[in-house]
Amino acid sequence: MTIIAHISDTHFDGSERALSRVRRAMTYLRGCNVDVILVTGDLADHGDVKEYNQVKAELVADVPVLLLPGNHDDRAAYREILLDSDGSAPINQLKRAGGLLFALCDSTIPGEDDGLLAPETLDWLKGVLADSEEPVFVGLHHHPIRLNNPLLDGIRLRNPDDLAAVLRGSSTARAVFCGHAHAAAAGTFAGLPLIAAPGIFSTTRLPWTTTDQLAWANTFDRDDVPGVVFHVVENGELTSHFRSIAE
Ligand SMILES: [Fe+2]
Ligand SMILES: [Fe+2]
């Protein structure tokens, strides 16, 4: 059995608030018996080097911590601080952790909030899935399906059909994990489970939980508690458990 602790959207912005919410989550997770921690993007809020130094210092544990970029991240600063490399090409990473294979895709478009899997990323993923003889768990920041928040759905992945074609052509893709929506949510995509992690930094309101007209100014609930999804993989089967992280 492998247990993946999936969190997202830490948005380190130099504030005490962001730092304390991440510390609360990481302290909780370090006390849990998990095999890998996955953080699906928007690690930094402005993409500054200083913010990545916080990422590097805070998103650590005795188990592997897998990271991927979101629309608030900056590829060059991310590479410089977290990967000790340079360049602005998509940050696509194949990782083995907890005995599982993770294909972590860069769905960002520099300077934009919505997402796109570039042709080179789709080719890379296709190759990873074709070369693997075991299940592969795919991670990306942007949700490829509508999650019923009109604002967030307006900045979802632009080319879900391209991703779906790659996944449907594979016998090894097992599930898709994403962030970006700041919402714990589950659906299906290309015949696979699709799970979005809650946001550490904030939670998006749903249209049916408020009488307010939702706009960017009031969509993010900053008082809601951070959360985590525990994905349990056993004999190739996946179950996902959602938990809030109380103070
Ligand atoms: Fe975010
Ligand atoms: Fe995002």
TrEMBL record:
One of its GO terms (molecular function) is metal ion binding. The keyword Metal-binding applies. Residues 4-183 form the Calcineurin-like phosphoesterase domain. Keywords: Hydrolase, Iron, Metal-binding. It holds the Pfam family Metallophos. It comes from the Bacteria. The keyword Nucleotide-binding does not apply. Belongs to the cyclic nucleotide phosphodiesterase class-III family. This is Metallophosphoesterase. It comes from Nonomuraea cypriaca.
